[in-house]
Amino acid sequence: VGEQVTLAWRPAAASWAQRERIAQILGLPLSEQNGKMIGVIYVFRELRAAHFQTADLDVLNIFARQATTTIQQARLASAMLAERRRLESMQSSFVSIVSHELQTPVSIIKGYAGTLARPDGPWSRDTVIRIAHTIEDECDRLYRLISDLLDISRIQAGRVAMSIGPVDLPDLAETLAERSRPRSSIHQFATDFPPDFPIIRGDREKLRQALGNLVDNAIKYSPSGGTITLGGRAEREHVVLYVRDTGIGIPREEQARVFERFHRVDTRLSRSTQGVGLGLYICRVIVEAHGGQIWVESDGPDRGSTFYIRLPR
């Protein structure tokens, strides 16, 4: 290990014919700085050659260190190339997804606006109101997508600004539930907090965004309706929030990846559902900026999901 050079007979390292002529075998360990062995170079000398001298060992040790450095550099270059290809693939997918997500609402808005502008269209008031609501919904969809992209830009630039103050989480959850009720007639929204739930310090707007993304996710992936519950409990040094749904659930092998940027669980519903895979990633960044943790638990397909956030008190 390190500078040590081991002298050993290794008949298996050469053919039987060569073995009869071998006088010495040197094993040169290729070791990283942390002591991890990454390989061994064997050096053979025949009977007719002189024995290894101290100068020979010094040269061979230098060669072993250079070989170790070369292997490490090759591995690093390979890892960097793999990461570059992964990022290029991610960027290509991102551009494709975002282009699709932008085109859809823009096409709907343009189509309905053109319909209203037709001079030969004596539209009833109800029709105009319905079209106006559709345009408003699609504008909201565009706004959410643009907001997510701006958030990602700030995160990548390291500019996640925080405005810290007291936050009443039960009140925040009730506000989110109240605002969510008009959005879906097939879902019920409930809150579940103990009466002595503590006030914490944090950025109320950022936490509202994180919880709001979780509620949006619960609505999106509970197409059959059901109850969405926002709740929490107090621990000794932390508080734990949760958003629970009764939707399609998340396979166990996907649960660790749902918070990655641009990642979406590949299901029939996800392929037909709006989104670019940024909402849960933004949740994770906000929670970690508060010194907290976020995770998900699900018993599997069609068993619902519960997203948890643990924050310091």
Task: Indicate the topology.
Elements: E1 6-7, H1 16-19, E2 22-31, E3 37-46, H2 54-117, H3 125-156, E4 165-167, H4 169-180, E5 187-192, E6 200-202, H5 204-220, E7 226-234, E8 238-244, H6 268-271, H7 279-289, E9 293-297, E10 306-312
Parallel strand pairs: 5-7
Antiparallel strand pairs: 1-2, 2-3, 4-6, 7-8, 8-10, 9-10
Helix pairs in contact: 2-3, 4-5, 5-7
What does the main sheet amount to? 5 strands, mixed
Spatial shape: elongated
What distance separates the N and C termini?
49 Å
Q: What gyration radius follows from the Cα positions, in whole Å?
A: 31 Å
Mean pLDDT: 80
Helical content band: 40-55%
Strands of the widest sheet, in order across it, are 5-7-8-10-9
Total of DSSP H or I helical runs spanning 4+ residues: 7
Q: Report the structural category.
A: alpha+beta
Strand content: 15-25%
Q: Got a strand count? A: 10
Q: What's the SSE pattern? A: EHEEHHEHEEHEEHHEE
Low-confidence stretches: 1-14
Features:
alpha+beta, 5-stranded mixed beta sheet, 3-stranded antiparallel beta sheet, 10 strands, 20% strand, disordered N terminus
Overall description:
With 313 residues, the chain is an alpha+beta fold. Helices cover 46% and strands 20% of the residues. The protein is built from seven helices and ten strands. It has helices at residues 16-19, 54-117, 125-156, 169-180, 204-220, 268-271, 279-289, and strands at residues 6-7, 22-31, 37-46, 165-167, 187-192, 200-202, 226-234, 238-244, 293-297, 306-312. Strands 5-7-8-10-9 form a five-stranded mixed β-sheet. It has a three-stranded antiparallel β-sheet with strand order 1-2-3, covered by helices on one side. A hairpin with an 8-residue loop joins strand 9 (293-297) and strand 10. Helix 4 (169-180) packs across helix 5 (204-220).
